[in-house]
Design a protein that fits this description.
By secondary structure, the chain is an alpha+beta fold. It has 13 helices and 14 strands.
Length: about 375
């Protein structure tokens, strides 16, 4: 889902466009002291964080890492009731950043010769992608991972949106468990967006299927495989695949949403939430330090063999994410010419970005704990192109 309400309903992809500003801007909490010797380093990033808070987001938490070391900073609040500030160590729901983890596992399985990216979906999940013109015999694993399958995005379904975004329905369904097959049934009830391989269209259904592929090939859940292959080897102690668990481990801030499309400005605490509706498309919980570590390790070849990393970085045009899309990986060129790799993601009350340079020398991960205003990509731009 996305950090902004319009895109939140589109599903599990980070935002790149600003939304309406809320009526009340919160006072920014001073960012953490910069431990590095150069005075004024990250000042552009600090200003961008404060600007996002002024646009209405409750708070921002981030960590940046470069040749000088790690810089941790916050702005705004983590709890609207108590006024407690955000913590740079916060754990948070990272939404579509999950997709990079899922794609990485499938690429590892390819490296182990346990499947091919050119296998059809039907090879592994026979008959599952059928209905209203969908045909898993014509769609490859690669097309799932780079969103060229044309499969309908289940989070675009109006009935599902009503069930998980309208205030009354959200609170009725917040602890509901959604199965992957329920989500696929929703998608198969609609026509494809386009014929496989003929265009690009972001679809969370692709990654629900990718999760099922991992389950089928390994005999284990995708969550277990992400833990065994990525989280534990890299020591990502703040990262977990929560499955159906509705809580976010501490340290963490509260997550807030206005929920309704035509909002009255009322803000709801949506921190507790069963993320099974996001499934392999967006369930992960992490923190900024872990995400920086993961993307730097991935881009520098410590997670995938060279052949698979090269495949992951083969991109197609993807205007919706503000760049190009590989296999669970976004490539963006910023205004200053810096090229970065990573992903963005959003889910109820939480929007996140995590990007690194190709050599892994400069990384940034940030989170906002509100989904109706502010653009965290402004923080990315400031960090890599600012002072």
């Amino acid at each position: 889902m996305s950090v902004h309400q319009g895109r939140l309903r589109k599903g599990f992809v980070g935002a790149a466009a600003a939304m309406a500003v809320t009526a009340v801007a919160l006072t920014a909490v001073p960012a953490a002291a910069d431990p590095r010797p150069a005075a004024g380093r990250h000042e552009a990033t600090r200003r961008a964080m404060d600007a996002v808070v002024e646009e209405g987001v409750p708070g921002v938490a981030l960590q940046a890492k470069d040749k000088h070391g790690v810089w941790k900073a916050t702005s705004g609040v983590g709890n609207l009731t108590t006024g407690a500030p955000r913590d740079a160590r916060d754990r948070y729901r990272a939404g579509s950043i999950t997709k990079t983890f899922i794609a990485t596992v499938l690429l590892q399985l390819e490296a182990e010769h346990r499947l091919s990216l050119d296998d059809t979906v039907d090879t592994w999940l026979p008959g599952l992608v059928r209905g209203h013109g969908h045909d898993g015999r014509r769609i490859t694993v690669r097309q799932l991972l780079n969103h060229t399958s044309g499969i309908y995005n289940y989070t675009d379904d109006e009935d599902l949106q009503s069930a998980i975004f309208l205030p009354g329905n959200f609170f009725e369904n917040r602890y509901r468990t959604w199965t992957p097959r329920e989500l696929l049934k929703i998608a198969m009830g609609h026509r494809p967006e386009f014929a496989p391989g003929t265009s690009w269209g972001y679809s969370n259904t692709n990654y629900v299927l990718a999760g099922l592929l991992i389950d089928k090939v390994t005999g284990n859940s995708y969550g277990d495989e992400v833990r065994r292959r990525i989280i534990e080897p890299l020591g990502l102690h703040g990262t977990r695949m929560p499955g159906t668990s509705p809580t976010v481990p501490r340290p963490s801030s509260r997550a807030y949403s206005q929920l309704a499309e035509n909002t009255t400005g009322k803000i709801y605490d949506v921190t507790e939430f069963n993320p099974s509706v996001a499934n392999a498309a967006g369930e992960i919980i992490s923190d900024s330090g872990d995400l920086n570590r993961f993307y730097a390790a991935l881009l520098t070849g410590r997670v995938l063999p060279a052949t698979q990393l090269a495949e992951m970085k083969e991109t197609v045009p993807a205007a919706r994410v503000g760049g190009r899309y590989g296999l669970g990986l976004i490539e963006s060129e910023l205004s200053c010419g810096v090229r970065i790799w990573g992903h963005s993601g959003g889910i109820h009350g939480s929007g996140s970005v995590a990007f690194t340079t190709a050599d892994g020398s400069h990384s940034l991960a940030a989170n906002v704990n509100g989904d109706w205003a502010g653009d965290p990509m402004k923080i990315v731009e400031a960090e890599f192109c600012g002072d």
